[in-house]
Amino acid sequence: MDVVIVPTPAEVGEHAAAVTARLVAASFPEPVLGVATGSSPLGLYQGLAARVRSGQLDLARARAFALDEYVGLPDAHPESYREVVRRTVTEPLGMDPARVRVPDGNASDLDAECRDYERAIVEAGGVDVQIVGVGVNAHIGFNEPATSLASRTRVEILTDETRQANARFFDSVDEVPRRAVTQGLGTILDARNVVLVATGAAKAAAVAAVVEGPVGARWPGSVLQLHPAVTVVVDEEAAARLELADYYREMARARGDVAG
Ligand code: F6R
């Protein structure tokens, strides 16, 4: 993994946007993005949007697949990931809504929807750049602890911890759905590149588990250690429990990822 530690959340967004833009350029003109929702990637999306506005990046023919979607929220609910992706990705990045897909959490046959989603990713040629955040329990997508490391897109039951963490987007934790459709860990591993962003002290244990912990289902994001092209961009607070932080800083300087 390439681990890049920067001082502030704003710099996480800017650096991760630069990495993503570089990877996307390699697949121009029809890159396939995998997109996370939540707070972590917002700065990254803003950085990409700025590049689109200035003409440095053109995503008009790009495709995107969301990582996940709640089961049972009305499509038009402001916190449905369909809406969040429209608001934070499709519109600001100048993407064609017909080329952006979010799992249908209201499908009458959810298993069929999951199979169809997997097929659609393959038919698009696979994901070039998968953007992921990480939960406090190290979930990626909504792959909660005990997920098979080979799992595919399916319905997952959310942990209380995850529902509490996401309660900030709703009026109360009772409104947070109990289930979600999520790309599996195996699905995420199929992406050609992964960019993980995390900020804040609450993510420090998860980041340490993902980067340095044993690979295992207790901390599902640790499976990214098996992927050959992962960039982890974190701020100082999220990096606080990395045992080898100084080594990562030295490596990032040697690669030219950060000045100094
Ligand atoms: C969202 C997703 C989740 C989030 C994670 C962190 O699509 O897949 O894994 O990335 O829960 O959420 P934030 O960034 O809001 O802390």
Report Rg: 17 Å
Low-confidence stretches: none
Compute the number of helices.
8
Helical residue percent?
25-40%
**Can you tell me the overall shape?**
globular
Number of domains: 1
Protein traits:
globular, 260 residues, alpha/beta, 8 helices, seven-stranded parallel beta sheet, three-stranded antiparallel beta sheet, binds fructose -6-phosphate, 33% helix, Rossmann fold
SSE inventory with pairings:
Layout: E1 2-6, H1 9-25, E2 32-35, H2 42-53, E3 63-66, E4 68-70, H3 81-90, E5 100-101, H4 110-123, E6 129-132, E7 154-157, H5 160-166, E8 179-182, H6 185-189, E9 193-198, H7 204-212, E10 230-235, H8 245-255
Parallel strand pairs: 1-10, 2-3, 2-6, 3-5, 6-9, 9-10
Antiparallel strand pairs: 4-8, 7-8
Helix pairs in contact: 1-2
